[in-house]
Design a protein that fits this description.
It contains 14 helices and three strands. It is mostly helical. It folds into two domains: about 1-85, DNA polymerase, domain 1; about 110-285, Intergrase catalytic core (hpI Integrase, Chain A). The protein has a three-stranded antiparallel sheet.
Amino acid sequence: MLDQFLHYLTVEKGLSENTIEAYHHDLVRFLDHLKEKGIEDVSKVDKLNLRAFLLGLRRRGLSTRTVGRNQVALRTFFRFLVLEGILEANPAEELESPKMIKALPEILTSREIELLLEQPDLKTPLGIRDRAMLEMLYATGMRVSELTGLLMNQVNLEAGYTLVYGKGSKERVVPLGSEAIQWVTLYLETVRSRLLKGKESPLLFVGRSRKGMSRQRFWKSLKGYGEKAGIKKRVTPHLLRHSFASHLLEGGADLRSVQMMLGHVDISTTQIYTHVTGDRLKKVHRKYHPRG
């Protein structure tokens, strides 16, 4: 039934590989939980079983966001079973959603960004490639999967933009800064063909194996550069995405433009970054308000 469900998500719903992978991970964990409880028939699962499972996730210290994602996976899975006529009712339909507490995202300062970007060894081909990737990531705020899957034909250095295919295959156009253009150009002119060793690849960023980098590999490299730079924060691709959005808003960018560049469907998702603009807004208020 799980295999059928994942096939349904892929073929009929057209969900991304990352989303399907998350559903698979969450549901395997749930099915293992049922096995531990001696429940072998899915029709025997009720609301209490589901609540006990989600409560167990909370007790294990998983975040509210992760518990909420598991709940969505359960609701969608059981909805599919009803759709297929395997169950008459969805026991997950009326589960109360966990309160989603939106934690303020941590960001890197401008100085920390500079330190991070300076870490790749520019005497090596891979160092130049990594510098280009870091510059691209910070310049566009794209997700790591979008970066590692970027194709040559998605980037127009002459016009100064990249076409990004985000969640749900939605596309957006994101401008490139002069630094990103400079480093990607250097990478293309001096490094990429050497890494490919006469072979061809549609991917923009390639490795020694002439293939693209996996998300996990890039994540590991980024973590290493963060440690090398002496940055105490946990440096991840998403931290650069947070920093990209926050620095734009601090510089005076409007929320709608940042939303479009990040590829957020709902502007409320982007609004979480407005916390960083507090000091700037106070200065503007003091300067321009008649009673400031």
